[in-house]
Amino acid sequence: MILDKPLEKLGGKGVFISEIEQALQSGDIDIAVHSAKDLPLELAEGTRISAVLRRSFPNDVLVTRRNEVLKGGVIGTSSTRRADGVRKLFPDTTTADIRGNVDTRLNKLAEGQYDGIILAAAGLSRLGALGDKRFDYTFISTKSLVPAPCQGIIAIQSGRDDIAELLSGVSDNDTYKCFETERAVLELLNAGCSSPVGALAEIKDGIMTLTVTKDQHTILIDSAPAEERFELVKRLVSEL
């Protein structure tokens, strides 16, 4: 409803879910489905995350008009983290705030309001937008631009025990471990929505590899058994 102000001026990521949480608390809805990266650390009283779905792409994507080479120009993003990454990866460009849903942002790019925009690969994939032939899509390495904590994860919030038990049947165990690990990074860094903090946890054969940054310039990577993930978080955050 408010598209002319930066997100941090509106109260941060919590503005995306406040009405949904109110409906959950009042009993108007039984579950709430969120993009996990939009969840504030403090959830509505009496609710919890009861399940997370298997993670999709965690990457960010640079979207440009078809067959146009990005030389300088303006890249649209509403994220401080992405803006910091753009300045590092594309130093000859500038950034400008962009708001609206994915379709709105893509149309603004097609109209020439921006020379490129940065979006989450997971959202583009889920909407089928990666097949839009108006654009070229460049996936950005998660080691070059560390994703927002929990990017690419769908989280399901509930308050009732019986519903939480049902939801446990669709929850992905490894993704849940990554979800809570990346949120632990946010908590230890006391990071708000306007922070450029990035965190990505990945599990393979019981070993978690964690990538963290608080400024998109100093990036630390280390591994440990998944059951030692919170010790891993503390160690890496202390070294930032």
Describe the structure in brief.
The protein is an alpha+beta fold and 240 residues long.
Please give a structural write-up.
This protein has 240 residues and is of the alpha+beta class. It has two domains: 7-56 and 149-239, Porphobilinogen deaminase, C-terminal domain (Double Stranded RNA Binding Domain, 2-Layer Sandwich); 60-140, Periplasmic binding protein-like II (D-Maltodextrin-Binding Protein, domain 2, 3-Layer(aba) Sandwich). It has helices at residues 18-26, 80-89, 102-110, 121-126, 161-167, 173-189, 229-239, and strands at residues 31-35, 48-52, 60-65, 74-76, 94-96, 116-120, 135-140, 154-158, 198-204, 207-213, 219-225. The strands form three sheets. The chain has a five-stranded mixed sheet, sandwiched between helices. Strand 10 and strand 11 form a beta hairpin. The relative contact order is 0.17.
List the helices and strands and how they pair.
Elements lengths: L17 H9 L4 E5 L12 E5 L7 E6 L8 E3 L3 H10 L4 E3 L5 H9 L5 E5 H6 L8 E6 L13 E5 L2 H7 L5 H17 L8 E7 L2 E7 L5 E7 L3 H11 L1
Note the main attributes of this structure.
240 residues; alpha+beta; D-Maltodextrin-Binding Protein, domain 2; 2 domains; five-stranded mixed beta sheet; three-stranded antiparallel beta sheet; 29% helix; globular
Mean pLDDT: 91
Largest sheet: 5 strands, mixed
Please trace the helix and strand order, writing H or E for each element.
HEEEEHEHEHEEHHEEEH
As for the number of domains, it is 2
Q: List the uncertain runs.
A: none
Number of strands: 11
Our count of helices gives 7
**What sort of overall outline do the alpha carbons produce when their principal axes are compared?**
globular
The fourth-level CATH homologous superfamily of the largest domain is: Porphobilinogen deaminase, C-terminal domain
Helix content: 25-40%
- The CATH topology of the largest domain is given as Double Stranded RNA Binding Domain
Radius of gyration: 18 Å
Instruction: Give the DSSP E fraction (strand runs of 2 or more residues).
Output: 15-25%
CATH architecture assignment name of the largest domain: 2-Layer Sandwich
Q: What's the arrangement of strands in the largest beta sheet?
A: 5-4-6-3-7
